[in-house]
């Protein structure tokens, strides 16, 4: 029987979800646990994993679609026979907003496309010329790109995770606050174009085995760190390959995309890492105005105790050891049904690590889940607080993580909810 893929609910009050990107194409083989697509609400963005093995088929919604919660958007079938039932790309309006076009920059002489790693502004946001607008990655570098002009972000034409041709318009800034905003995925339209199959017909004779290219001679990093481009690292991870195999064979660093072909021909020295062993990440954004008003109203100015108590209330267990760290200190709490109690000595293990960076100049942080789920709080602006949860499946399930960050975010945005 086919397995239905539905639009999940990321929050209690969510009615729809924005389908940001598909990570698999119709007809692709899918394994349980593979990242299938990304969905966004007004509070969080989440990568959704496949819940069955098979082939992605009967896709009914393309990237850029706003889909009701619970609606079937695709199926995972035993055979790829329905792969042709892919949706038409989301139609692009004939009239795009008039304003300043943001184009995909060239980071190298041989660069044809750039991968959009992150957008640092949301649709409708005011943007200053010196603000970091987005991050772009090629096989050799990753770069933060400034807006270059003041305005308002009125249109996003390529979502996070998509590749845009150099020189193509990827966003539009308008001089005035836009009445409506536009979100498209031009990469899906490009991918939907049929490509002529230039593969020559195969004969009955078996193809000769591809020889292993001769290894180059050269030195490696002396500090034990593997030097590789971001794109090479990402490709190795997606293919289940270990860059240490190249190091063991004496292949010189730094590694680039071309070296991945060599890596694929080498025997694996250890089992490939599975998706389940990888760290996962959830993000949410809230307006912290009510939290500030609550601390003034209640007279609770010990932010660490307040944050630990709110976080403990969102965790599934009745009691938890939580550490709240700032750039200059760390406090440890035993959190139970009666609230958070500060403890002097650090516990042997913690159930949750919180980095409260609201008073820090940092605008982004990825610290990893380490031995416990890790959450960071970063103040983006007066009315925007970014919350990031990093974890792996050995610490909590995807559903537990979604429920936790949703309830914690809602509590911070409506702190009286926790009290009542």
Q: What would you say this structure looks like, in words?
A:
- By secondary structure, the chain is of the alpha+beta class.
- It folds into 4 domains: 3-82, OB fold (Dihydrolipoamide Acetyltransferase, E2P); 100-191, RNA polymerase II/Efflux pump adaptor protein, barrel-sandwich hybrid domain (OB fold (Dihydrolipoamide Acetyltransferase, E2P), Beta Barrel), CATH 2.40.50.100; 230-275, no CATH class; 280-419, Chloramphenicol acetyltransferase-like domain (Chloramphenicol Acetyltransferase).
- 17% of the residues lie in helices and 30% in strands.
- The protein is built from 8 helices and 24 strands.
- The chain has helices spanning 186-191, 230-239, 244-248, 257-265, 289-298, 303-314, 398-413, 416-419; strands at residues 3-6, 16-22, 29-30, 35-40, 44-49, 54-57, 66-68, 72-77, 100-103, 113-119, 126-127, 132-137, 142-146, 151-156, 163-165, 169-174, 182-183, 280-286, 320-325, 330-336, 339-343, 352-356, 374-381, 384-391.
- It has an 11-stranded mixed beta sheet with strand order 7-2-4-5-18-24-23-22-19-20-21. Strands 9, 11, 14, 16 and 17 form a 5-stranded mixed beta sheet that branches. A 4-stranded antiparallel beta sheet has the order 1-8-6-3, with no helix packed on it.
- A hairpin with a 4-residue loop joins β19 (320-325) and β20 (330-336).
- The longest helix has 16 residues, at 398-413.
- It is globular.
């Amino acid at each position: 029987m086919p397995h239905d893929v539905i639009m999940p609910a990321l929050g209690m009050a969510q009615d729809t979800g924005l389908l940001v990107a598909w990570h698999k194409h119709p007809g692709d083989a899918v394994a349980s646990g593979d990242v299938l697509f990304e969905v966004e609400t007004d509070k969080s963005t989440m990568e959704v994993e496949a819940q069955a093995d098979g082939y992605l088929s009967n896709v009914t919604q393309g990237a850029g679609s706003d889909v009701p919660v619970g609606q079937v958007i695709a199926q995972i079938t035993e055979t790829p026979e329905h792969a042709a039932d892919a949706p038409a790309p989301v139609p692009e309006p004939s009239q795009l907003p008039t304003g300043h076009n943001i184009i995909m920059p060239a980071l190298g002489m041989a660069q044809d496309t750039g991968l959009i790693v992150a957008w640092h502004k949301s649709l409708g946001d005011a943007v200053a010329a010196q603000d970091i607008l987005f991050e772009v990655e090629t096989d050799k570098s990753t770069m933060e790109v400034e807006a270059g002009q003041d305005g308002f972000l009125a249109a996003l034409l390529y979502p996070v995770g998509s590749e845009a041709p150099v020189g193509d318009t990827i966003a539009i800034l308008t001089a005035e606050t836009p009445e409506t905003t536009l979100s498209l995925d031009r990469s899906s339209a490009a991918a939907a174009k049929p490509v002529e199959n230039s593969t020559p017909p195969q004969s009955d004779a078996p193809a000769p085995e591809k020889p292993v290219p001769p290894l180059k001679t050269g030195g490696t990093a002396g500090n034990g760190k593997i030097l590789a481009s971001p794109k090479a690292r990402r490709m190795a991870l997606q293919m289940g390959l270990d860059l240490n195999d190249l190091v063991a064979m004496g292949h010189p660093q730094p590694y680039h995309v071309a070296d991945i072909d060599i890596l694929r021909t080498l025997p694996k020295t250890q089992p490939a890492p599975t998706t389940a062993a990888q760290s996962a990440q959830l993000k949410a954004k809230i307006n912290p105005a009510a939290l500030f008003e609550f601390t003034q109203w209640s007279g609770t100015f010990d932010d660490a105790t307040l944050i630990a108590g709110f976080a403990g209330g969102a965790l599934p267990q009745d009691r938890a050891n939580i550490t709240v760290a700032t750039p200059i200190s760390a406090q440890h709490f035993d959190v139970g049904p009666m609230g958070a109690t500060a403890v002097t000595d650090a516990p042997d293990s913690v159930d949750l690590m919180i980095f409260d960076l609201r008073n820090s100049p940092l605008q982004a942080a990825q610290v990893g889940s380490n031995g416990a789920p890790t959450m960071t709080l970063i103040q983006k602006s007066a009315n925007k607080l970014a919350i990031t949860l990093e974890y792996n499946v050995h610490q909590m399930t995807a559903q537990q993580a979604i429920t936790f960050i949703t309830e914690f975010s809602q509590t911070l945005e409506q702190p009286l909810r926790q009290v009542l």
